[in-house]
Amino acid sequence: MFGRMEDSLRDLQRAMAAHRKALAANRMLPGEDAAMRQRVMHRLTRDIERISGIEITEMIEGKLARVLSSVAIDELERWARRLHVLPGNDPEWLSLIESLTVHETFFHRDRAQLALLGQILPELAIAAARSGRRRLRLWSAGCATGEEAYTLAILALRALRDAGFADQSPDGGIVCRAPWQLDVLGTDISRLVLTQARAAIYSTEGLSAFRDLPHEFQRFFPILPKSRESGEIERRGVLPAVRRHVRFRQFNLLAALPPETECDVVLCRNVLIYLTAAARRDAQAVFRQALRPGGYLLLGPTDTVADPTAYEVRWGTGAAAYALRPRDE
Fold first, then answer.
1. How far, in Å, CA of 157 to CA of 167, rounded?
2. Structure pTM?
3. Is the dihedral of CA 13, 16, 18, 20 positive or negative?
4. Which residues contact 159 (CB under 8 A, 6 or more apart)?
5. 3-state class of 39 per DSSP?
6. How far from chain centre, in Å, is Cα 9?
7. pLDDT tens-place string over residues 267-325
8. Quick one: how many helices (H) and strands (E) in the chain?
9. Which has fewest Cβ within 10 Å: 71, 233, 268, 269?
């Protein structure tokens, strides 16, 4: 996979060099190049919407134009034609989409919503015990570098402990009592951010991932020893007792089927705002398929539910969650 990415980058570098040479030889008419480039860029942006659902705003158009500004028009057109016939999970598509997406997040983001989830999770645990499932399954959709997935795992472990289904461990973690299971899945369209998520190591400098972390949660992120790689920068890692419950997977929200089903919680924040209206509806259809009846959907503060009749709203202080109604209601 990464070998193909490197080949694509080399192709682009060669195209850039050819473009500069052509300009120096004055072989292109600026007016003709601009008109053709505009047509190619229009086709390319339509394909980006089709593959990723990303809404092509002026900001995205400008970012894409800057990324491809040095590529000769003939090379750009050939590349766009090749992309058009490639599947959406091809490394070339993923590399392009990664360059256009936003991955800003941090631990314990949106305290009002997490406070509401803190009330819901013990109820879900008790319901799971009564049904004999003895398992909680949570999905962080658009997890970026993993902070929200690990936050979900910590909240769920605390809920299981408070409900009497898990115990405090000597290292400061929380361990589920057999046969209880906790499974947290984090997905993102970007492979690069998932690499960092799996590493579970975060810097504490500047506007860090820990900038709004409550004091009682800090024990889940021990300070790591200094290394040649980190230098004097302080870094924290996710406690192994938390990491063992979290896994990550590359996933496009426009897929026809969800990565998992029978989820108790699906969380998707600050992702849908970047998608077209049609893509938002498609993504929410995937979320609905992923949830079990009675499971909760949590969205960003500006997001609205595509099908309000399918959910029962639960209000908290400054937040809302949506419980999926049984199919026969």
1. 9
2. 0.86
3. negative
4. 118, 121, 122, 124, 125, 136
5. helix
6. 24
7. 999 999 999 999 999 999 999 999 999 999 999 999 999 999 999 999 999 999 999 99
8. 10, 11
9. 233
